[in-house]
Design a protein that fits this description.
Strand 8 (275-280) and strand 9 (289-295) form a beta hairpin. The protein is of the alpha+beta class. Helix 1 (3-30) crosses helix 3 (77-85). The radius of gyration is 31 Å and the shape is elongated. The chain folds into two domains: 3-88 and 115-140, no CATH class; 144-300, Alpha-Beta Complex (Cathepsin B, Chain A), CATH 3.90.70. It has a five-stranded mixed sheet. A two-stranded antiparallel ribbon has the order 1-2. Helix content is 51%, strand content 12%.
Length: 301
């Protein structure tokens, strides 16, 4: 190899390895649970393909052929992930037919092979294979949403209750308690008032709540004043702390029905009628969600 060409080729190979490493790292980070296996397989294939190409280019340079590709394949992580997850990937392209062109001597000869189309066909074939594997994996995967929904339907029916759907957002816990208070206590309050009531009870009983304000990101306890400020001024999701605070504020038990465990009851000693909530972990797109549970009456059946 000539020193100048040798150095340029090695530098390009080094840059391509660096770029491919960054690409595969990005793909792995963005992979979902369902696609992770296929993404890892695709990353290994791209690495092996690059190493084979590098060896071929070095051999070509040693042989003095001068025919060395200078354009590595596309390494955009988003594009590659979309190709893996795509439901509309085209079928593998067929082997290009040689085209007949007129020669100077009046005869004919096949045109040059279209290597770009051949590479595209091979890549599409691999994508189809990955897609089929992903579909088989998805078919065998556990449907946690259905399992939870079936379990919750049985638990709720057994209690003689029915679900009153609440909008799935940061206010869902308070909206569910709002509905329960209207149904069982004849009390009409809005969501913001419930947030204020929960915050006020927490601040007046700090010893009951401060131990639960541990922040896993900072490994420190959050300041109660900061927490209640966020509770009242933003649509932050409610939790067991807010349920406990409101159960004590209204002097009533609040039962939370959830799949896979016995109902969680806050303030069991409360004197006022019990409120019933349903807690879902897998059934809603935004994640954890609360619904109100009303009594079943004859008109509901």
């Amino acid at each position: 190899m000539e020193d100048g060409k040798d150095e340029a080729l090695l530098q390009r190979h080094k840059q391509e390895r660096k770029q491919l490493t960054a690409t595969t790292t990005g793909m792995k980070k963005q992979a979902t649970k369902k696609t992770r296996k296929n993404v890892l397989k695709r990353c290994d294939e791209m690495m092996e393909e690059m190493e084979r190409r590098h060896k071929q280019e070095l051999s070509q340079l040693d042989a003095g052929s001068g025919q060395i590709s200078t354009e590595p394949p596309s390494l955009d992580p988003q594009e590659l992930l979309q190709e893996i997850e795509s439901e509309g990937v085209s079928e593998p392209a067929s082997e290009p037919e040689p085209q007949v062109v007129s020669a100077q001597n009046g005869g004919s000869k096949p045109s040059k092979r279209n290597r770009q189309k051949e590479r595209l066909a091979r890549r599409n074939a691999k994508i189809e294979e990955v897609k089929r594997a992903a579909q088989l994996e998805a078919a065998d995967s556990v449907d946690y949403r259905k399992i939870e929904q079936d379990s919750m339907d049985e638990l709720i029916t057994r209690q003689g209750l029915r679900v009153e759907e609440v909008r799935p957002d940061g206010h869902c816990l308070f909206a569910s308690i709002q509905d329960q208070l209207a149904q069982r206590h004849g009390i009409n309050v809005d969501v913001q008032e419930l947030r204020q009531m929960a915050a006020a009870y927490m601040k007046s009983h700090p010893d009951d709540f401060v131990p639960f304000l541990f922040d896993e990101e900072t490994n420190e306890l959050r300041d109660l004043e900061d927490y209640t400020k966020e509770l009242t001024e933003t649509p932050m999701w409610g939790s067991d702390m807010e349920i406990l605070a409101l159960a004590n504020h209204f002097d009533c038990p609040i039962a939370v029905i959830m799949a896979g465990s016995a109902p969680l009851v806050m303030n069991e000693a409360g004197a006022a009628p019990k409120l019933f909530l349903a807690f879902y972990k897998h059934s809603y797109g935004l994640g954890e969600h609360y619904n109100s549970l009303r009594d079943v009456v004859s008109g509901d059946i």
